[in-house]
Design brief:
This protein has two domains: about 150 residues, Glycogen Phosphorylase B (Rossmann fold, 3-Layer(aba) Sandwich), CATH 3.40.50.2000; about 190 residues, Rossmann fold (3-Layer(aba) Sandwich), CATH 3.40.50.2000. Helices cover about 40% and strands about 20% of the residues. It has 13 helices and twelve strands. The N and C termini lie far apart (about 45 Å). The model has no long low-confidence stretch (mean pLDDT about 95).
């Protein structure tokens, strides 16, 4: 048996997309037993994956939590530890786990954060880059390979795709929540996951632009389309504004506000019930990709090249000079309603053809 430990705790979308390495690992190490260490809130993103034998959860901000997990895992030696976070506490944690081989980010004998040579293609574009942030940023902008391609090449495995298995029960519950609005409109249902967290606010489009997109699609489809507002706790205020603007619109489009307090399985099931999701570079986007839901994904501060859509959707990319700058105020004004609506129409048309 080959015992493999994966350490990947954050961010949620990154945890999910890293599941793309699992099929390749099982092909390379056919007797593999995989344990995944992740943050408490990320457990649903990996726990149901058939390749994961065990999930160990930690609070990455708590040294006590990391110490307890290290003590628990230190009782057994792993054949391979894959450490994919660059934060000092996680590097320290990963360095404490007995292993025959290591790949990723760890602490060296002097207590400095370092990474192994094989993962240079990824960590060389990040904060730990050996030649500094300026060079790392330049490589990030020049990169043309997806996250899946990069990680597969680093690990010497076949490129895979992320997966997020869901129970029939949670899928059925989500379908029931979406069913009424879908029946009224008698057309496709488009999920709107257009917000973003606080780190890169211009990953999101303004609520007013989101509403304009809804009204434009409603006009183009002569009302035969419905919409689902999607988001997490950080999107509560903006989704409330979108809800109010849509409710006051004339003509009023058919929409359902799914709320911002859904757990990850419930949120993923709602995404799964959509025919298309218009989304920022976010957890919602990664869930849609993992659940094989077509997307129109838009990008301004972050890299579109890293995202693989697997032929199911389109990317709308900022044409501003600061695209992929990872600036918190990157210009997203070129992500217009017209560009988004045209992409939605193309993706919906292709979906209709493939279903016929």
């Amino acid at each position: 048996m080959t015992r493999i430990l994966i350490v990947k705790t954050a961010a949620l979308g990154d945890v999910l997309r890293t599941t793309s390495i699992l099929p390749g690992l099982l092909e390379r190490y056919q007797d593999a037993q995989i344990t995944w260490v992740t943050a408490l809130g990320a457990e649903p993103l990996v726990a149901a994956h058939p390749a994961v034998a065990q999930v160990v959860t930690v609070d990455p901000s708590s040294q006590d939590s990391l110490d307890a997990a290290a003590a628990r895992l230190g009782n057994a030696s792993f054949d391979l530890v894959l450490s994919f976070d660059d934060e000092a506490p996680i590097c320290r944690f990963a360095s404490r786990i007995p292993a025959r081989a290591r790949s990723g980010a760890f602490l060296d004998a002097a207590g400095r954060r370092v990474y192994t040579d094989d993962v240079e293609p990824w960590f060389g574009m990040g904060l730990l880059a050996r030649d500094g942030k300026h060079a790392a940023d330049a490589r990030k902008r020049a990169n043309t390979r997806s996250h899946q391609e990069l990680f597969a090449a680093m690990l010497g495995v076949r490129p895979g795709r992320p997966e997020l298995p869901l129970s029939a029960e949670v899928l059925a519950h989500a379908a029931a929540r979406l069913d009424a609005v879908t029946r009224r409109a008698r057309g496709p249902i488009v999920g709107l996951n257009t917000g973003a967290g606080g780190r890169w606010p211009t990953k999101a489009i303004p609520p007013e632009r989101c509403v304009e997109l809804v009204l434009e699609l409603h006009r183009r489809r002569a009302g035969a389309i419905s919409f689902a507002l999607l988001g997490g706790a950080e999107e509560a205020a903006r989704n409330a504004k979108i809800h109010a603007l849509l409710a006051a619109a004339a003509p009023r489009p058919d929409f359902v506000d799914t709320g911002c307090a859904n757990g990850i399985p419930e949120f993923a099931a709602l995404v799964s019930g959509c025919d298309l999701v218009v989304t920022s570079d976010s957890l919602g986007m990664h869930i849609a990709i993992a659940r094989r839901v077509p997307v129109v994904a838009f990008f301004a501060p972050t890299s579109a090249a890293e995202i693989e859509l697997f032929g199911a959707g389109e990317k709308v990319i900022s044409t501003a000079p600061d695209y992929c700058s990872y600036r918190s105020d990157a210009d997203n004004s070129s992500i217009t309603v017209e560009r988004l609506a045209a992409a939605c129409e193309r993706v919906l048309a292709l979906r209709a053809v493939t279903r016929s």
